[in-house]
Amino acid sequence: MLALVGLAACAPVPPDRTGVAFRPDAGGLAVPETGRRVDFGRAPAGVVAPLTRELGPFDPLPLATCPDAITQRLRWGDLELTFTQERFVGWRQGAERAGQVCGG
């Protein structure tokens, strides 16, 4: 029993979320609280990591309705982002969208 308590104490603690909001706009995502941006053209790792840290895990979506260049389609809640192999290229949230997105 004591060994289990010791193991639980070693479990990694998830990073604290800061409550940062990501606001989609014509150029990518604005981060109003900080004045920063996550613009179209950024490498996928530079987009996925902060969104996952702040919004939690993403859901991967199928690529069947996507243009050929899209290699990743990820969703956090109602925010869907699309990526090529090297870049963040689009978002969709409800009926709103910007950049290169998948159909459907």
Can you tell me about this structure?
With 104 residues, this protein is α+β, with helices and mostly antiparallel strands. It has a domain at 40-104: 2-Layer Sandwich (TATA-Binding Protein). The chain has helices at residues 2-10, 44-55, and strands at 23-25, 28-31, 36-39, 59-60, 72-76, 79-83, 88-93, 96-99. The strands form 2 sheets. A 5-stranded antiparallel beta sheet has the order 4-5-6-7-8, with helices on one face. Strands 1-2-3 form a 3-stranded antiparallel beta sheet, with no helix packed on it. A hairpin with a 4-residue loop joins strand 6 (79-83) and strand 7. The model is unreliable at 1-8 (pLDDT under 50).
> In CATH terms, what is the fold-level topology of the domain at 40-104?
TATA-Binding Protein
Q: Gap between N and C termini, in Å?
A: 52 Å
Radius of gyration: 17 Å
Largest sheet: 5 strands, antiparallel
Query: In what range is the share of β-strand residues?
Result: 25-35%
Specify the helix fraction band. 10-25%
Query: Which sequence of SSEs, written as H and E, runs from N to C?
Result: HEEEHEEEEE
Number of helices: 2
Q: Strand arrangement, largest sheet?
A: 4-5-6-7-8
Question: Would you count the extended β strands for me?
Answer: 8
Provide the residue-averaged pLDDT.
88
Structural class: alpha+beta
| Stretches with pLDDT under 50, minimum 5 residues | 1-8
Shape: globular
